[in-house]
Amino acid sequence: MIHSVIVIVIVFDISYPQTMATLNTIAINEAAAADLPSPLAKPLSIKLDRPIAELSWIQKSLVFAELSRLAYGAPNIVKNIFSEGGLDQCIFVERAGAEAYVLGNRFDCLIICRGTEPRQWNDIEADANALTIAVDVGRVHSGFNSEVNELWPLLELHVRENTRPLWFAGHSMGGAMAAVCAVRCKTSPIPSNPNAIFSYGAPRVGNRPYASVLDVKHYRWVNNNDIVPRIPPAMMGYHHMGQEIYLNRKGKISYLRSWLRVYDRILGLLASLRIFKIDYFLDHSMVEYIAHIKRYHESELAGKSIRTPKHIQAQ
Questions:
Q1: How far apart are CA 202 and CA 115, in angstroms?
Q2: Cα torsion 117, 120, 124, 126: sign
Q3: Domain spans, the chain
Q4: Does domain 15-301 sit in CATH 3.40.50?
Q5: Which end of the chain is more exposed for a tag (fewer CB within 10 A), N or C?
Q6: What is the pLDDT along the chain (315 residues), one digit of tens a residue?
């Protein structure tokens, strides 16, 4: 028990830039895996041959989790996977290191933002710039806002005439950018409005007024000890957007709060140390998120009823 306390103190002493530097290594692994024919180059678990709105919330979560991981891949690699999954529209949008995919079919339009690219200086700078900047609807993370300043004008061109339901998703910084893009979409004069946001391991993006400006469903998945959702710190005035879906140390959706959440995270950390890994970074991997959500999807396919989290309206 003494050893576990020492480890916890060391991890929380990591500065914000050091934390993001470590997460950049994870992003490299995600990006590298995206270019491999296996295990990533598989069809989507659910083919999008009907409106996304008709899927259960678990099915939606799995689809957007897989798309968020695929977003780390090069267009020439993932375009065929998107097409096989029922998304015949695939546009890769990039400007000054900020990147996203605009995907779609006759039913839906999707914007999937790519997470941190460690080879892109803009991404690293955006991660590290944790100061907030004032905008019309509150205060937002300066780095994420700068990335979206580059990206949104190009994205807006592709959704300006869109009349289909518009969905946003992303992992890590991509989840934060998806949320900021959704706010831009909502406050812009275009007819498209965000239908929902799905984020995985996303950091806080702004102050309380900014975090509460959107009246749309935001499924914000957090995997046990994933360190990214805990930064930037709340003491800097940051708040999370959306409704948290917390996965406990066993990968199950949980409603743990206060000391019970802390206890669960300590047990998760100790379990990771037994296999010589650090849970704070291991739990950030999209591979982990997808595996946990896929188990729920398999249970659903087996006929088991998956309870909608208390804080998310039934669909």
A1: 9
A2: negative
A3: 15-301
A4: yes
A5: N
A6: 334 333 333 333 345 555 555 555 555 455 455 444 344 567 899 999 999 999 999 999 999 999 999 999 889 889 999 999 999 999 999 998 889 999 999 999 999 999 865 444 444 344 445 678 888 889 999 889 988 999 999 999 999 999 999 999 999 999 999 999 999 999 998 888 999 999 999 999 999 999 999 888 999 999 999 989 998 988 889 999 999 999 999 999 988 778 888 888 888 888 888 777 777 788 998 999 999 999 999 999 998 877 776 656 544
